[in-house]
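User: For documentation purposes, I need each entry recorded in a consistent format: the amino acid sequence on its own, followed directly by the corresponding structure tokens. There are two entries in this batch. Please keep commentary to a minimum and don't merge the entries.

Assistant: Recorded as requested. Entry 1:
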Amino acid sequence: MNRTICLLLASIAALPLWAGMPNSDCDHPFVYDARVNVIVLPYRNKNVNNADLERASGQLTLLLQQTILFSALKYPSIGTVRMVPATPSRAADCAAGPVAQKLLGQAPGAERQLGPDGAAILLWGQIYKERDQVYLCSYARLLQRGGDVALRAPIAGKGEFVAKLPADSVTFPTRLITTSALAQIGSAFREAATLHRDRSLNSPGSPLPMDPDVPFAYQVMEATPDGWMRIQGAHGGPSGWIYTTDALRKQSLAPRLPELRFVDGAIGYLESLKAPGAASIRSRARPSLEAFNEIGGSPETGLATATAKSMLAVMFERDPETRSRGYQLAREAVALAPYNADARNLELVYRVRMGGPQMYQGADWRSIADEFAQAAALGSGKKYILDNLDLFYGQVLTLPGLVNEATVSEIRKRRDQVALLRAP
């Protein structure tokens, strides 16, 4: 299998709210009323279908769902859902595209769609097993019901520059994990998944339902700094306290699957776009994205790393003290994805945001305008980049004493050309 198959297949959450649900039918996808939901879809191999592989896939996705939930307890409003096909013959229902359409309200069938400002992250992949070795190729997709604008840079009553992330869907390299490692992690989760009556390890307890074939929905009502979380089962289900033990923290999937750091950081990024107290959320998300960036940068992870750097850049832009660091990250994203229109557009918006009147002097404005035009050419159909270019031209014209009559005439001709391209 390995890299070749992976690349071929890549082409074809007033009160905090956390929630988890091991199972949901892919044909009728479900999300919680949280700002960000993470939906774990099956890991499949279209060419192999046997009980051993299905067992490994079921164990993996359950562990992914639990790992993501426990990691994301630092965020105010997060839900996780593990989806499965209604029957083995309905595996196609779990394809990311149809599930995304239903959650976004673009197709019927969702048990509950994303809310008007809701966001979700889909995580799925391909799986291949040889003896005790499991090869995984993961994909992630970011969904935003209210639009996918990452950055808005207002220009004093004259409009705003708009930027988006380099990608909303990314592919990660093939990873190798052994069945014994999965078993160790599963054992740590079973140890952690004891439902205590009170917040004490000496309190009477019973095992939390963790059968991949038995749905169990729950909401985390409270999480404490020392590792306890209080859950309430749906529809009168069990309730009590769970302790996220040291064994669970040490036996984590995250070191083996760096993409989980990407997902964790993306949760914080998406929630920070809508939530009050966004500065605190951003500070919780940054370590995960920075950790992912430390291992990224290869050709296989270039787009994912550029997207992670861009998420950081957007979060850093909110604070004047960190804005210069954000601009550097935006430049690094362009270096990783030089032909990506959105990476280049974000860097340009950042540059205009950071720059002063000097960028409009002499021929400097032409250089920036030409770069906006190049980004627009790379992103055919991305009208907002042309809007940015037109806004930039307008900004040049409004700065007195920086342009002469000949320059005014040139800019007007350029804006006429942009208007033709922006026309429906």
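Entry 2:
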Amino acid sequence: MNTNQHYAAIFFLLSILLAACGRPDGGSKRAVIQNKGSDTLVNVAQAWSEAYQGINPGIAVAVSGGGSGTGFAALINGTVDIANASRAIKKAEREQIEARGSSPVEYIVGYDALAVFIHANNPIDRFSLDQLTDIYGEGGTVEKWTQLGIEVPGCRDQEIVRVSRQNNSGTYAYFREMALHDSDFKLGSRDLHGSKDVVDLVQSTPCAIGYSGIAYATDEVKIPCILTTDGSDCISPSIDTALDGTYPIARELFMYTIGEPTGAVKEYLDWILSDEGQCILREKGYAPAKAVLCEAG
């Protein structure tokens, strides 16, 4: 064997070893599913990822948030396998995927009640959708709590502090659609990156009102019920009212892929929609996408 043949043989053996190491059954590297998007879903997505490690150690699921719009952007540019969303895909986003010769595939993975949060000392206990429009919507006339017939202890000048989400958020888009009837938001709200940030700010600010998924609720904030029309029942957000459709700001939660998923991605999505995956979602405060029997405790 000459020198060139010797080096070729070594290179061939190294290539075989490296290829073996790169497979999930090679023991040194796992396949990775990239999962990104909705801040509403990020906590349950992380819980799914952690639980799945015990079921399929050969697959790692890398989860990040950033908002539904961020997830769709990553899906369009091909940097994620699954996009999480708390709103349906927009026509323009779908068209960008179709322009690449494929189609988005939608999975409803659960339901969420979008709650309105106020400070624990705020005496108001209910809102109508029209009142929310007057508080948040462009052209709305409500700027002070006294205009709603109350005074909030500790709120100087009774000026309402409107806490909202950034405009790449599916929660922002859904609240705009359902509570503001697709009108624009007033300028001057405090637009925060995450749902937890909304709850934290409302908790520490007597004048504040904010909104996010019910799963982010804490004992330190108050959650008023919502009237759909004057004189109707006032419905509180919960898993049950999200499921039966009585809560007026309930919504579907989605995962999207480009094209029908196969292999590890399909197996993971099938598991998320199984009783085990759906019970994890329920544990985190969301309504499951189907009827499930979960263990108590």
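Summary note for entry 2:
The longest strand covers residues 104-119.
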